[in-house]
Write a structure and sequence with these properties.
Length: about 525
């Protein structure tokens, strides 16, 4: 132990500096730069395309390093947020958040920091995603007296050459597969360890369902290639921390793959009939550090049901942030463990909002399979969550979590309406096998065009409390409309086989490097 920091802590800087990351200050980082001989500082921050951007700053001497750590740097907001902000009012400051510091695994002698945006007056820039999420987070807490925490399940495909495989995978059969059938075990181990060190709060990593053999008529990027799917899942954290974790994890995964000559895609759909890549978001509310999703009897609480009701109410317009490309709506189809109806249930993967197992009424489970183990463990499991299953790999992470917070706030504030909505939309069976349930439940949007229209009709829910600015919502609507997919589903049905394949190629190609 160094102070109160375990020697086995995942974050090497926490071990070296000897204090929790949230307590890092500029003096700690300057000391690190001196001891390690750091040659450059990299600022990283989200932009309108959903990817992590960078600014490389040399360490000429320690006074230069201290200056940029203290005062940040200037960036061109009109380029980072093209179409969202007027070029005449676009200069921004980027300021490093010290607790996010990490040593670059890809550039020797470099220190990385995630940044926040400030405007010319030194105030949070109103239109940037980090500040929209911060306002949404504060708005939920103000309305509920609770903090909203979330975790993401980050699914992605690795695309690799179709050479001779001694242990081939099975289509739709790779869930939790192990080596040698899980081909990229060493790569996945690096994803797990680097994400744990840099992002923190990793829960686990595993092989997912998707396993796609090569097809001669596929995209040029896919010809002579195979695809296998994996998932990286995190533990719950405050919303702003969750957004940063997911964005940094995508950056890590892409870079690790590129170093190995592999292509990684978070696209929602790469092959019809095969599993798409979702980004399921679990959430829970805490009050004074206690999970309030269950009542004193261990039953799902009215607080949780209110949040569910809020998510159901805004489910359609939330796709504007969580399903941002035409390929998204090829994933939201029946019988693919993706939702198509606005409903909820416990442990049911055909619904929009699922209530997964949450260690309710059980503890010390290992003692039940290890008879010699005394049931003496006092754990700190995060407990019950609710899971939104519609978002996918094209999600605009900060705006999606901000939208979820707005929906949860509304669910809390309009408690009776939300509880009634939750009662009406609860199902107990697989909805695809229940014609009665299917007939009474609302549908999710079938296209970006439908999503854009819903966002426009419900924009007041997101503008409330000043969370989203009108210009940002306009940007999101126009981004969806630019997909021009209003008739895509109908057109695919009417096309011949060759035309259908060509149309699908274009849709998939456009989303290959989404967000």
């Amino acid at each position: 132990m160094k102070g109160n920091i375990p020697e086995a802590h995942a974050n090497p800087l926490v071990r070296e500096i000897g204090k929790p990351a949230e307590d890092f200050d500029r003096k700690d980082l300057i000391g690190l730069i001196r001891r390690r001989g750091i040659k450059s500082i990299h600022f990283r921050y989200p932009a309108a395309d959903g990817k992590l951007k960078e600014l490389k700053l040399p360490v000429n001497d320690l006074s230069d390093a201290e200056a940029v750590l203290a005062e940040g740097e200037r960036v061109d907001g009109s380029s980072l947020f093209k179409g969202m902000v007027d070029a005449g009012k676009s200069d921004l400051y980027v300021l490093p958040v010290y607790r996010t510091a990490f040593l670059s695994p890809f550039a020797p002698d470099s220190l990385e920091l995630i940044c926040r945006y400030l405007d010319g007056k030194g105030q949070p820039a109103a239109f940037t995603p980090d500040n929209i999420l911060a306002r949404a987070d504060e708005s939920f807490t103000k309305a509920s007296g609770c903090s909203l925490h979330a975790l993401g399940e980050l699914e992605f495909y690795v695309i690799y050459p179709d050479d001779r495989e001694l242990y081939p995978g099975r289509p739709q059969g790779a869930y939790h597969e192990a080596a040698p059938y899980s081909r990229f075990d060493e790569f996945l181990e690096q994803v797990l360890r680097l994400s744990s060190e840099i992002c923190g709060g990793v829960k686990y990593c595993h092989s997912e369902v998707g396993c796609v053999a090569s097809a001669e008529d596929a995209l040029p990027e896919f010809r002579g290639m195979r695809m296998v799917q994996y998932e990286l899942e995190f533990l719950p954290a405050p919303l702003q921390e969750t957004a940063g974790r997911l964005l940094a994890a995508k950056w890590i995964i892409r870079n690790l793959a590129a170093k190995r000559g592999l292509l990684v895609s978070f696209a929602p759909k790469l092959s019809l009939g095969d599993a798409g890549s979702g980004l399921h978001i679990h959430m829970l509310a805490q009050k004074q550090g206690r999970n309030v999703m269950l009542d004193a009897k261990g039953v799902l609480s009215d607080d949780a049901r209110g949040i569910i009701g809020g998510l159901l109410r805004r489910a359609g317009s939330l796709t504007a942030f969580g399903n941002t490309c035409a390929a998204s709506y090829l994933r939201l189809v029946p019988h693919q463990e993706a939702p198509v109806r606005v409903c909820w249930s416990g442990s049911n993967r055909s619904v929009l909002v699922r209530v997964p197992l949450g260690w309710r009424g059980v503890d010390n489970l290992a003692s039940r399979v290890n008879p010699r183990q005394k049931p003496d463990y006092k754990g700190d499991m995060f407990g019950q969550t609710v899971e939104l299953r519609s978002p996918d790999g094209s999600a605009d992470l900060y705006l999606l979590l901000a939208g979820i917070a707005c929906a949860a706030r509304e669910g809390w504030s309009r408690r009776e309406e939300s509880l009634a909505l939750a009662r009406e939309a609860e199902v107990s069976t697989n909805v695809f096998d229940d014609p009665v349930a299917l007939s009474r439940l609302k549908t999710l949007p079938c296209s970006c065009a439908e999503s854009a229209a819903l966002l426009e009709s419900e924009r007041s829910a997101y503008e409330a409390e000043g969370v989203f600015t009108p210009a940002v919502l306009d940007f999101c609507r126009k981004r969806l409309e630019a997909e021009k997919d209003r008739q895509l589903s109908q057109d695919l049905v009417q096309m011949g086989e060759d035309g259908r394949k060509e149309s699908l190629r274009r849709v998939v190609a456009a989303s290959l490097h989404c967000m």
